From TrEMBL:
It comes from Lichtheimia corymbifera JMRC:FSU:9682. The lineage of its organism: Eukaryota, Fungi, Fungi incertae sedis, Mucoromycota, Mucoromycotina. Residues 133-273 form the SGF29 C-terminal domain. Keywords: Nucleus, Transcription, Transcription regulation. InterPro entries: SGF29 (IPR037802), SGF29_tudor-like_dom (IPR010750), Tudor_SGF29_rpt1 (IPR047288), Tudor_SGF29_rpt2 (IPR047287). It holds the Pfam family SGF29_Tudor. It is found in: Nucleus. One of its GO terms (cellular component) is nucleus. This is SGF29 C-terminal domain-containing protein. PROSITE patterns: SGF29_C (PS51518). Residues 104-134 are annotated as: Disordered. Its main location: nucleus.
Length: 273
């Protein structure tokens, strides 16, 4: 799959994810704060050296006095910048906490709704289907779904939402999360082996990390398509401050470039059947 086809689906979940954006801003501000504090420490050391070297009772030269004045002014300026940066970080962290709490409340409501739907499904289709009830992906769940082959188009794993499961055909009815050129969201009937549930935020922390070197399906940044990639670094080993908590991956046929992908958007490669 060439890079041009990847960028044709322009919807970007990462760019519209307010929580991720805030977290990146916080990390940037923390790095800035560390640099300010190092510079402040240097200024204070210079001031202390002058105070230790000079006997102020005997007077101080105008040159040294001017230098000391500049150090004090620089220290005051750095202290003000440090204070503003800390307040900015505190504000962003407060907003992030509020967003997480709202998201968790929303997820709790979704879980209750899905439990009800699962109970309804259980009573509606007793003893049926090739899949056990616990394996069925419920309506409303976000998935990676392999599009049916279309004329003049390559098969792609797209980001979609489950509409319903049809046990008699062992297929899912899904809706593409992205709009086509006419502004419509296409729907497809897809065999269950070509549908993979995307972990929700509350599930991600409990998932084992995929290992370096492992082949995966990963959401290509800036798109709503999954492509084959290889894990270079799992989140715990990724020390890049600009992309914390992400997988570092290399996509197939992507000029050996490295990309960063959120954990929930990196999936185990399905077994070929």
């Amino acid at each position: 799959m060439d890079r041009k086809s990847r960028t044709s689906r322009s919807a970007s979940l990462e760019e519209t994810n307010e929580e991720l954006s805030l977290w990146k801003q916080i990390c940037t501000s923390l790095a800035k704060l560390e640099n300010i504090q190092k510079e402040t420490e240097s200024v204070l050391n210079n001031i202390n050296k002058i105070h230790l070297a000079v006997n102020f009772d005997e007077g101080i030269s105008s040159t040294l006095s001017q230098r000391l004045k500049e150090y004090y002014q620089n220290g005051i300026s750095l202290s003000s910048t440090e204070s503003r940066t800390i307040n900015d970080i505190i504000e962003k962290v407060s907003v992030l906490i509020a967003l997480r709490e709202a998201s968790e409340n929303s997820n709790e409501q979704k879980r209750k709704k899905r439990k009800t739907e699962a109970d309804e499904l259980k009573h509606a289709s007793p003893g049926s289907g090739k899949k056990s009830k616990s394996d069925i992906i419920l309506p409303g769940i976000t998935v990676a779904a392999k599009q049916p082959k279309q004329k003049d188009k390559n098969e792609e794993w797209i980001l979609a939402v489950v509409i319903s499961f049809h046990p008699d055909k062992n297929k899912y009815h899904v809706e593409d999360i992205d709009q086509d050129e006419s502004g419509q969201k296409q729907r497809y009937f897809i065999p269950s082996r070509h549908v993979i549930a995307v972990p929700e935020s509350h599930e991600i922390r409990h998932l084992p990390e995929l290992k370096a070197g492992q082949d995966v399906l990963a959401l290509y940044p800036g798109t709503t398509c999954f492509y084959k990639a290889t894990v270079i670094l799992p989140p715990k080993q990724n020390k890049d401050i600009s992309s914390p908590g992400t997988y570092k991956v290399q996509f197939e046929d992507d000029n050996n470039e490295m990309k960063y992908v959120m954990p929930g958007h990196v999936l185990e490669m399905p077994k070929s059947k």
